[in-house]
């Protein structure tokens, strides 16, 4: 009996050790110390073990604080043992003395820091020639793109679950309400109201027009600048609907009684 109990305890510890995510930075391109031009990628080849459907990111830090004005890659989900690519680029002049590798996943979702990697990187913040990429960077980029396309195809071919379909329908209805209400209600109030109330009603309308034009112009200049534009419209439209509702109540209360 004691031997059986000991074997069970060892098995539990072995499974826990196997499930624990471990990562190490195998290669960095360009090698450190590195000087990066604006928008030049610094890539890390990260070897991991014990991954259980998690995302893995790299975030630059300097003197314990996250470096702002950076771009990072979106991570695929990783399971088991393998190799992941993480990269970032600096949009302005900056120093980096540490890269923190973070993971996120699980149910409930949680994020954690799994590795701190000391490094010396200087960003010039100016356009300039980029270093020639190491072969492994191109290979991992291509593999990641192929995996992302395969995931999209698999997701499109799989039937929606009842809860997912309900969320999609609710979001679609909310988006339509935000578009028509966000533009329509302020436009109606601007047309119907008079005096200072008309000027106040025009403010939400101008805000919605500005939001829509900003998205159109930014996407024309950089197609990936507003990947979450439906949420931007949803939030802006909801804000305008609430603003008109508040103005309508205030206008009603401040009208002189007969």
Automatic annotation (TrEMBL):
Q: Where are the transmembrane segments?
A: 165-185, 197-217, 229-250
Q: What name does this protein carry? A: DUF4436 domain-containing protein
Leader sequence segment: 1-19
Q: Which UniProt keywords apply?
A: Membrane, Signal, Transmembrane, Transmembrane helix
Q: What superkingdom does the record give? A: Bacteria
């Amino acid at each position: 009996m004691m031997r059986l109990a000991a074997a069970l305890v060892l098995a539990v510890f072995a499974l826990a050790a196997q499930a624990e995510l471990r990562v190490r930075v195998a290669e960095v391109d360009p090698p450190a110390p590195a000087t990066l031009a604006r928008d030049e990628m610094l890539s890390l080849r990260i070897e991991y073990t014990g991954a259980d459907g998690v995302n893995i990111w790299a975030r630059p830090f300097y003197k314990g604080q996250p470096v702002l004005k950076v771009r990072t890659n979106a991570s695929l989900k990783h399971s088991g043992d393998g190799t992941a690519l993480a990269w970032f680029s600096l949009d302005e002049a900056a120093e980096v003395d540490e890269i923190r590798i973070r993971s996120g996943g699980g149910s409930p979702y949680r994020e954690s820091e799994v590795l701190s990697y000391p490094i010396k990187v200087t960003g010039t913040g100016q356009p300039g020639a980029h270093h020639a990429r190491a072969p492994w960077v191109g290979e991992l980029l291509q593999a990641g793109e192929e995996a992302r396309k395969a995931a999209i195809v698999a997701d499109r071919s799989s039937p929606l679950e009842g809860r997912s379909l309900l969320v999609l329908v609710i979001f679609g209805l909310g988006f339509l309400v935000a578009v028509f209400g966000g533009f329509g209600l302020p436009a109606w109030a601007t047309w119907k109201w008079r005096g200072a109330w008309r000027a106040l009603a025009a403010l939400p309308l101008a805000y919605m027009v500005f939001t829509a034009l900003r998205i159109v112009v930014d996407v024309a200049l950089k197609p990936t600048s507003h990947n979450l534009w439906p949420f931007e419209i949803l939030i802006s439209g909801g804000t305008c609907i609430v603003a008109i509702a508040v103005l309508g109540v205030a206008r009603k209360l401040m009208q002189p009684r007969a």
